[in-house]
Amino acid sequence: MDVAGLALGGSSLAIQLFSACTSLYQTVQSAIGQDADFAGLVCKLEIEEQRFHLWGNAAKLQSGVDVSSRHLPTVLRTLECIERLLSGRQKLVNRNELSQSINGHAHLPEGVGEAAESVIRRLRWTISDKRHFETLVADLKGYNDSLNALLYEGQRLSVIESFKELSIKVLGTDNPEKLNILRQSTWNTYEDICSTAALKCLALQMEHALTKSNSKEPPKSLEVIPQLTLPWDRQPLMRRETSLIQRHPHLVEWKELPSEGSDKRDRVLRRLQYLVAFLSQAPKPQNLRVLALVGTAFSPDSKKLGLVSSFPEDTGSSDPTSLQDYLTSSSRQHRLPTLNDRITLALRLANTLLVLHTSGWMHKAIAPHNILFFHSDDGNEDSDPRSGILQSPFLAGFEYSREDGSMDQEGAYSETVTTGSDMEFYRHPSSRGSQRSKFRKQYDIYSLGFVLLDIALWKSSASLCRNTSPKEIRSVVVDRYLRGDIAYRAGSVYQEVVETCLMGNFGERGSEKNWLETQFLRRVVQRLETCKV
How far apart are CA 189 and CA 267, in angstroms? Predict the structure, then answer.
């Protein structure tokens, strides 16, 4: 048979094997049923099934096969291994088969497409034993990894983005039991999903605890966060200070508390307990660029609570620099960072907000003042934004943050954000004033839009609209800067992203959970990833 004939035969075989494996995944799940003892393993199996489908979509196995002819024999062998594994004809597991290739005429392995009853009967020994089932799922993961490695680079990136979107949708559930199963199932394999699920569980726990009763007892299920003693006996001098604790640098962010004995103080402290648990959660999702909280401290007069976070690893002890400091520096024009660094900064902030919202939390005070950069031990060279420091931002200023609870309709556990005039500029008009609306995730996205605008212009947009009323700010910025200036400085794609955030251009609201997060991934994060210099 000539080369073209072999390729055609191999493509046909790949499609048949893919279809057979798809059916077998369903057969195995049906055989397991609703056994609660196997819920975690079934979740793992479903993840690998979805990854298998994503690979098939990328390789275009619905209409043809878009795989390198050089890799096609290995793809066929891998698909055959998956088929044998799911049908119970292959023992767990002969990994050497992955290095073999198919020679000669392509053919379907014997037994492909047999009745589901035969498959279930043969698999009974595997699916009735957790250890064997665990091995089965681990092998399937290994085969999926191998298949993805054989894709073209563009296809691999497509699979990665599709898996992110799938993860966001799965994390949209408000069922704590399902989230716990997801968290346990992804531990040590898909750590970002695991840690995000843990944060979402905490958000749901907070929502339930703060709305089910007026109890003033602390939540018993939360781990105790250390109460620290700061090395000074004075009132806080600034909203944000640094301190050496046990000879290590820490950041202290002070939160003003309502008067002692008031119901409002009790509510605020209960909310802060969950916020502290959220910020101290470890490990955190990789894209969630926030500091690790290690404890809290009261001011001497007990009017303020300090959230104490450790400095990032491999940084010195000097005070961090905020994005606002860079934007308003007198040497700003002489130290303009590269467009590459600015786009990277914008992307990392967008990813941080995406993870935060997917976890069920809102920030409520996104502004350049709350975006920090920490310096290395090498002196002050990296105080220059051109040094690469912009690629390592940290989102701070969480003192008003809370979960995105639908149960707290009256906003009893939500606080009005009180900030300086420049920070006020970054807040959505509907979240300001006496007639403000209940805070929602779209308001965080609006604030991010102005931060992205600042990054493109490399100047504070607040200073450009100082005499503009809150309701007119957005239209003024759109008319003055989005109609050409941003595209000139950062490209048309970046301009579209900023406009999407400011105008809330996310299409019609869908019915599925995490609809907004999915659209934010597509229209902001993935668009920023395509920005080229």
Answer: 38
